[in-house]
Design a protein that fits this description.
This is Adenylate/guanylate cyclase. By secondary structure, the chain is α/β, with parallel strands linked by helices. Strands 3, 4, 5, 6, 7, 8 and 9 form a seven-stranded mixed sheet that branches.
Length: 1027
């Protein structure tokens, strides 16, 4: 069906399929306006076309793919509750319940897009991404459980009913619709299913969440359970409470921090001696660089000495809560938990103060407020207020810390960048009061929080070197290979925590879950950042500003503002006139953000911009087109990459690019354009295959056979001619002369009347005649072809490559005719001409032709008795083949060299039988290898040489068998050019004179009939010697 009408010439008369293809291409390159117009035209002609409807339904503002932590809170038996109270009361209770959930979610940085109903879904990680969103979701869930429990107590007292909630937290990839503020995907559904597994008044988390929060919460495993719509049982855990402290077990080894460790050891030794003059050591650096690991090492030093270690830990959730790290320490040392009553809290604080030597009467009034204990619990408040009270509390906390240490000790202050001002003041007071016996080890990210003065030393931690990273990776997993370790190192940029998590998560696809949230938090600075960072990630680790702007399509000022924001967030850094992701893992996270449709469009835009740049790196362009699902464009780009590689002489690379191009076409819809491109690609790959592996290459032959299967409709004249010529040569190298004749006949039928094609066909016919042993017919075809080619002026572009090769090959085959006629000088001249003409064929034609010429020169030298020169030529053939990656000629050269070694031994009167048999065996192995690859052309020459060796070794029967094998091969395939020599040699293996005479006469008769004067003369010499 076609679509008529409209002013666009391209759409007039176009088929629906063509219109849809163009619409899809427009979507993929981000041109929604064109796609919409095209889809609308399709629907005008076919109102129910589902593909057009799908195209129109693509969102204008695509969302993001995110791994989000999802909390689902569900009111238990809400329907039953609605039957037990008045509607107004029910509305009040449900409203209060929703308020509690919203408050807890907001407190921990989550977001609820919709508040309808009593089942509430909250997302953590959007619109603001934090580096601990899974932990925040669980903390919010615990708070919901507690707050609803208190609400239930109130409802029981006032209305005589209870309300309970189930909370579940799950984590997984979702489609985040930023325009509609909603999430889609299995993970969102699973969050509700996980919630349904929780007992009333409890919080459960899926296994995906448990792996991220196990160090921060006490978990109780629950047997896996089936849920509706999921194909396997859900592994889940009940969250009991927050953990009191994290375990130090399983710490990774310390690698590349020898200087820092030495500094800590020296400082700790001074503290134990009471002579420490610089009590503060600050380890500063980006997240994951190893600050906490060094702080833990300092704690271990003190603990191993029997000294006290105190920990003050900052929290991103408590940056505005006064003295929060001190409160956490006090709660831990007093064994206070959330459920501990106020009076009991006071009693335990009093006991701890007394135990460490403080006067409770003086200390408790100043420390109790830190724990949130009101005076009504039973103590007299301090008689001070305002700044005076603030100073007294700071002094008392410092005094308490020093009393806990009781002498030499270590205070570890982790994540000081999250400390509130009051806790930083305590740190300052502690440093001033250290008295040479307290080592304060602080960790933090770069910023303005560093205490001033001479009491601290700041140590900025650099990334590990490549060698150090390799040591750490091997220590974490000794089973990894060198390549696997290098792959990990390349992703992690020397950041120890990244290395640890990537090694531990090698079984996971993409960025490990333990790294996703902290990396995403750095990326997701503002909504405007997302499209820019998505495009940058698609371009690669490093990118050019102009390329990025062309892809994103924003103004230069807007782009500079976003890049500045990403640079401030530690995501990007300047690099060689452009920009680079600070870490490869950051780029990987950014690449995950774009939904598949967006990602395809970005890849297509990048490729289009690179192509317009003039001289792109075609391999890179092809990869982008492939990711964009623009299969024909990808295949064409790989074809260009192959051309570039061929010009550099990289034959294997050129073939690999063509293989990748053909792989793209496997999924492309069949049509004339696709088939025409496949034919061109296979034609090129087949030609390169013949150059590398010889015309015996079955893979190359399969490519040419496929070209013929595609039919004349998809092959231009030059492509069909080149394909048939290559197939003919394939059969010639295999000495399959019957099939070669059939292909030549097809060539004559279709192209015999064309001026440029005729001499090429004659060269092929002459080659067949040569191999059959008809020197006169061969000379007739080849000499005529040579004259035609010599008189042609400018080579017809349509058949240029094949004609140019034929100009060289005709001289080579005329040389072989001269050789068989015994005219060695003429043969040498013709080979020299072939080499000269082959020099202009380019790559891979020139290397191939020169290898062929050297091979035939080795034969000429052997037949003319110049063995030293033959050895040099054979060795040169091997070197040449190795240089250009010509596998077949490498084996051919090795076979010639083996033959020369054998003939040299024959010429040495001192050579014994054992050596001759060994040389015969070696040459046989080379010959068998050639034939196993399908190379049969000329190989009966080596049968003759093996026969000569065995005759000289005194093994005439074995010699006769080998010579007979060569003759039978010739009988089977029609390659009789060396039969006369084989018969002549076989004559000397017979015992009876009659048998010798019969073979010698047959050899002379055959040589005369073939015009092989060389062999006829040798028969005459043998005849004279016999008489």
């Amino acid at each position: 069906m076609t679509i008529d009408g409209g002013s666009d010439d391209q759409t007039h008369g176009a088929s629906i399929d063509e219109m849809l293809d163009r619409a899809v291409a427009a979507i993929n390159r981000g041109d929604r306006a064109t796609a919409t117009v095209l889809a609308a035209k399709v629907l005008a002609a076919d109102g129910t076309n589902p593909e057009a409807e799908d195209l129109l339904s693509v969102p204008d503002q695509p969302g993001e793919i995110r791994r989000l932590s999802l909390l689902f809170a569900d009111l238990v038996d809400s329907t039953v509750l609605s039957t037990r109270v008045e509607p107004e009361t029910y509305r009040l209770l449900v409203g209060r319940y929703r308020e509690k959930v919203l408050a807890a979610v907001n407190r921990y940085g989550g977001h609820i897009g919709s508040t309808a109903g009593d089942g509430l879904l909250a997302v953590f990680g959007h619109p603001i991404a934090h580096e601990d969103d899974a932990r925040r979701a669980v903390q919010a869930g615990l708070e919901v459980i507690r707050d609803v429990a208190r609400l239930s107590e109130q409802a029981q007292r006032r209305f005589g009913v209870q309300i309970q909630v189930r909370v579940g937290v799950h984590r997984g990839p979702v489609y985040l619709d930023t325009a509609q503020d909603d999430v889609y995907g299995l993970a969102a559904n699973l969050a509700a299913r996980v919630s349904g597994l929780a007992p009333p008044g409890a919080l459960v988390v899926s296994d995906a969440v448990a792996t991220l929060i196990a160090a921060d919460f006490e978990l109780e495993p629950i047997p896996a359970a089936w849920v509706k719509g999921v194909g396997e049982p859900i592994v889940h855990h009940r969250v009991v409470a927050e953990s009191r402290s994290a375990s130090g077990a399983g710490r990774p080894p310390l690698v590349g921090r020898d200087e820092e460790l030495a500094r800590l050891r020296a400082s700790w030794a001074q503290a134990r001696a009471g002579t420490l003059t610089t009590p503060g050591v600050i380890f500063m650096g980006e997240p994951g660089i190893g600050k906490s690991r060094l702080a833990a090492a300092a704690g271990d030093m003190a603990a191993d000495s029997g000294s006290v270690v105190l920990e003050l830990i900052g929290s991103p959730l408590q940056t505005d809560t006064g003295l929060y790290p001190v409160r956490a320490l006090l709660e831990c040392r007093c064994d206070i938990v959330r459920e501990t009553g106020e009076h009991e809290r006071l009693r335990r604080l009093d006991a701890v103060c007394h135990a460490c030597g403080l006067e409770p009467r003086l200390a408790v009034p100043l420390l109790a407020p830190v724990l949130g204990i009101e005076p009504r619990a039973g103590y007299e408040p301090a008689a001070a207020a305002g700044d005076e009270l603030y100073g007294l509390v700071t002094q008392e906390v410092t005094r308490y810390l020093l009393a806990c240490l009781g002498g030499a000790g270590v205070v570890v202050a982790e994540d000081v960048h999250w400390f509130d001002p009051s806790t930083r003041a305590v740190l300052g007071a502690l440093l001033d009061s250290a008295a040479g016996r307290v080592l304060v080890v602080m960790t933090g990210r770069p910023g303005g929080w560093v205490p001033s003065g001479s009491t601290v030393e700041v140590v900025e931690l650099p990334p590990l070197t490549d060698a150090q990273a390799d040591v750490l990776i091997e220590a974490l997993d000794p089973g990894l290979s060198a390549d696997q370790r290098a792959e990990v190192a390349a992703r992690c940029d020397g950041v120890p925590f990244y290395i640890e998590q990537v090694v531990n998560g090698r079984s996971q696809a993409g960025v490990p879950e333990t790294l996703y949230e902290p990396l995403l938090a750095r990326l997701h600075a503002s909504p405007e950042v997302v499209p820019v960072v998505e495009a940058a990630a698609v371009i690669g680790r490093r990118f050019d500003r102009d390329l990025l702007r062309s892809v994103v399509g924003v103004s230069p000022d807007e782009l500079d503002r976003v890049i500045g924001e990403l640079e401030d967030a530690g995501v990007l850094e300047s690099w060689a006139g452009g920009w680079s992701f600070r870490h490869e893992l950051l780029r990987e996270v950014a690449a995950e953000l774009a939904p598949p449709s967006v990602r395809r469009g970005l890849h297509g835009k990048v490729a289009d911009v690179l192509v317009r740049s003039g001289e792109p790196e075609w391999g890179l362009v092809a990869q982008h087109y492939a990711h964009a699902a623009r299969l024909l464009d990808a295949a064409a780009a790989y074809q260009q990459a192959s051309t570039d590689a061929r010009r550099r002489g990289a034959l294997a690379e050129a073939r690999a690019h063509l293989t990748r191009a053909l792989a793209q076409l496997e999924d492309a819809p069949p049509d004339a354009e696709r088939d025409r491109l496949e034919a061109a690609l296979r034609l090129e790959r087949g030609s390169l295959g013949f150059a590398a592996d010889g015309y015996q290459s079955p893979e190359a032959a399969a490519d040419f056979e496929r070209c013929l299967q595609l039919g004349h409709a998809h092959l231009r004249n030059d492509e069909l001619f080149e394909t048939l010529t290559a197939v003919a040569n394939y059969h010639l190298i295999r000495a399959d002369l019957r099939r070669a004749d059939k292909v030549i006949a097809v060539l004559r039928t279709h192209f015999g009347e064309r001026q440029c094609a005729h001499p090429v066909i004659e060269v092929l016919s002459g080659t067949v005649a040569l191999l059959r042993g008809d020197c006169d017919a061969a000379y007739h075809h080849l000499h005529g072809a040579g004259d035609e080619l010599a008189t042609q002026g400018r080579i017809d572009e349509e058949y240029g490559r094949v004609v140019a090769e034929s100009k060289a090959l005709v001289r080579l085959y005329l040389a072989l005719v001269a050789l068989l006629r015994g005219d060695f000088d003429r043969a040498e001249d013709e080979l020299a001409q072939a080499a000269r003409l082959g020099s202009g064929l380019g790559f891979p034609g020139t290397p191939y032709l020169h290898a062929y010429t050297r091979s035939m020169t080795a034969w000429l030298c052997i037949e003319s008795g110049r063995l030293d020169h033959a050895a040099d030529v054979a060795a040169a053939t091997i070197d040449h083949a190795e240089r250009y990656g010509l596998d077949m000629w490498l084996r051919v050269g090795a076979t010639w060299l083996s033959a020369v070694d054998a003939l040299a031994a024959l010429a040495d009167d001192r050579c014994d039988r054992t050596v001759l048999v060994s040389l015969s065996s070696a040459l046989t192995t080379h010959l068998d290898n050639l034939r196993s690859l399908g190379v049969y052309m000329y190989t009966t020459i080596f049968d003759a040489i093996i026969g000569r060796l065995l005759i000289a070794a005194g093994e005439p029967e074995s010699a006769r068998e080998r010579l007979q094998e060569g003759l039978e091969l010739a009988r089977d395939n029609g390659m009789h050019f060396y039969d006369a020599e084989l018969l002549r040699l076989r004559a000397s293996t017979h015992i009876t004179p009659d048998a010798r005479r019969a073979d010698l006469d047959a050899a002379r008769t055959l040589a005369r009939r073939q015009g092989a004067c060389l062999f006829e003369m040798r028969c005459g010499v043998d005849d004279l010697e016999a008489h």
